[in-house]
Design brief:
The chain is mostly helical. The chain has seven helices and three strands. Strands 1-3-2 form a three-stranded antiparallel beta sheet. The longest helix has 21 residues. The chain is elongated, with a radius of gyration of 21 Å. The two termini are 34 Å apart. The N terminus is likely disordered.
Length: 173
């Protein structure tokens, strides 16, 4: 049931239908009061998408933060490691582990910043760019699975709406 429009008179809830014999068991049915909350639905869809992508990345020995670091470096260019921490909102010690792991695998390089020798600059390598393209393909496949119930037009509308919400979130650069 869609949420009521602001200022409208709430309609009486529809009587709960008995589950179909081959449908979800009553013990596993989602409470209708949660299904009325867009935030709940967003959370569930996001969790499903994140789990599926994390599973695919894990098969390669990678994590979501690995992909995020590669994407930030590919999209925005070299970063000081502490700037990656700020941009991605990850703990500094966790970032060090991610950059170490990616560096050992040859996906990023760390060099001393010419302007400030105390600062390390992290750069994505060509191997990192190739890996990121593969990971993006994995992410798009997961996106296709999760959004399969929607038409192409509905997917574009959903993306536009989510992008607007994201742009207004506190702390979003």
């Amino acid at each position: 049931m869609p949420p009521e429009e602001p200022g409208s008179t709430p309609s009486a809830p529809a009587p709960a239908a008995a589950p179909a014999p081959d449908g979800p068991s009553p013990g596993r049915a989602t409470p209708p009061s949660l299904l009325d909350l867009s935030t709940y639905l967003l959370s569930r869809a996001g969790k499903a998408a994140r789990s599926r992508l994390a599973e695919r990345l894990a098969r390669r020995g990678l994590r979501l933060w690995d992909m995020a670091v590669l994407a930030a470096l590919a999209d925005f260019g070299p970063h000081a490691q502490r700037d990656l921490v700020r941009r991605l909102g990850v703990d500094a010690s966790d970032m060090a582990k991610v950059v170490d792991r990616l560096g050992l695998a040859g996906y990023v390089e760390r060099t001393r910043d010419a302007a400030d020798r105390r600062r390390l600059s992290v750069t994505v390598t060509e191997a990192g760019r190739v890996l990121l393209a593969e990971l993006r393909a994995e992410a798009l496949a997961v996106q296709g699975e999760v959004l399969a119930p929607l038409s192409g037009t509905e997917r574009r509308v959903l993306h536009e709406l989510l992008a607007r919400i994201h742009a207004e979130l506190p702390g979003t650069p």
